[in-house]
Design goal:
267 residues, alpha+beta, six-stranded mixed β-sheet, two-stranded antiparallel sheet, 7 helices, 8 strands, 28% helix, globular, disordered N terminus
Amino acid sequence: MAAQDITGAPWPRWRLFLGLAVVATAGLLLFGGLIATMLALVVPSKAGTERVDVLAAEPSSDERRDAIAASSLPDVPRDARWPHAPAAVPPAEITIPVSASIGPAGVSSGFPRTPEGALGQLAAIEVRLLEAMSIPVLNQVHSAWVAPGGPDLAAWEMSANVQAFLGAVPHEAPGRIDDTTTVTVIPVGAQLKGTDGQDWVLACVMVEVRATVATDARMAYGHCARMAWANDRWRIAPGVPPAAVDGAWPATQAFIDAGWNTWRQAS
């Protein structure tokens, strides 16, 4: 889902990058333009129901899954996604299993049939998409990793991110970034918004995104998705997409207050 401002109009921040980059040649820092560009990766919070308790003992109805998806995480300040001072008390950690193989579309796979495995798989999908910033890769990943009935390609939040980035950053090859631009994505936080039986998880992942054009900048980006186990792997599941989440820089008080745990990769 494309980011919108409070009036409902699409955010122009990706487009602002090009104008700011031109101005930068007259003396302003390109860093400011890159910050504006990266803001498009942040989808504002939407109203939802109260947060649903994590972990359901028994499978339940579609209504429960919809309620989990619609529930909102706590709001965080708008500037919380940028690097700033850590909290005095560090957040709790959550251990995420390592990938055991490379799956379709070059996405790390082989995660176990556990809630933590769903978190690992969602993060692997995000890392592949955002680091590639490529329309062909976007299509391949969607085809392989979004289950039938899941978000349509054109309406998928991750599609909007890739399209907006490519629309703002100069690139030579059609539909993909070139060698002058790099994007690095590192998982830094995770939380389980809810589960429904053994094979359905509402997974939320926070990643640190670093984009380099003429300089670099960093921010935190949060994303949630329905995840379902089928045919020996986790995939993005059908249903109304979850409520959007705000970015919160890892280990800060805003990160903790919003319920995030520090990502710890199993050895």
